[in-house]
Design a protein that fits this description.
Layout lengths: L1 H6 L5 E5 L4 E2 L4 H6 L7 E5 L2 E2 L6 H6 L2 H7 L5 E4 L11 E5 H6 L11 H11 L3 E5 L4 E2 L6 H12 L16
Length: 171
């Protein structure tokens, strides 16, 4: 990712969107950018909801309507510490000046460089915003066993690992 960022013409913000993710609205990007109201905001991310062709299991776990119901009064939430899914680069915006001070750790070839980068800035007193309006549709069509393997994979990303293909991913 560092290579791509270095090639970009971005001046203030870096936007990350997984190649097979779909923004939820035409105002998605503007909605995300509106959250940079304070110098202590390092980035913005949103929820991940299942695509229409997602598996039954993905539809149960990454359900847009249940998420909206649970967050009916919480459109934006200030996040002050890292956890699984916080500032995941499936859909995120970060400040380019912060990336310039600390690039992504490329030892995380298998993933997790997004969380590691965010945790660095959390420890420096920065915050992230989770904005429901900055959510995306994204899924892989994984069955129950594959979702369990994916969850275990995500849990392993708290330390650097070299890249290798993930057998449980269909697409």
């Amino acid at each position: 990712m560092n290579f791509g960022v270095k090639q970009s013409l971005a001046e203030k913000y870096l936007v990350f969107l997984s190649g097979h993710s779909l923004p939820i609205s035409k105002t998605w990007l503007a909605d995300g950018l509106k959250n940079f109201t304070d110098d202590k905001i390092m980035g913005v991310y949103g929820f991940v909801w299942v695509l229409p062709d997602g598996s039954v299991w993905e539809k149960l776990i990454f359900n847009e309507y249940l998420c909206k119901l649970r967050n009916i009064f919480k459109k934006q939430i200030i996040i002050k510490q890292g956890a699984m899914g916080v500032m995941g680069f499936t859909n995120a915006i970060i400040r380019k000046d912060l990336w310039g001070k600390r690039n992504f750790n490329e030892e995380y070839g298998l993933g997790g460089e997004d969380g590691e980068w965010a945790n660095y800035w959390f420890q420096k007193g920065y915050q992230a915003i989770r904005d429901i309006k900055f959510s995306v549709y994204h899924s892989h069509g994984l069955d129950y066993k594959q979702l369990k393997q994916q969850w275990e994979h995500w849990r392993s990303l708290n330390r650097p690992q070299p890249f290798k293909p993930l057998d449980f991913r269909k697409k």
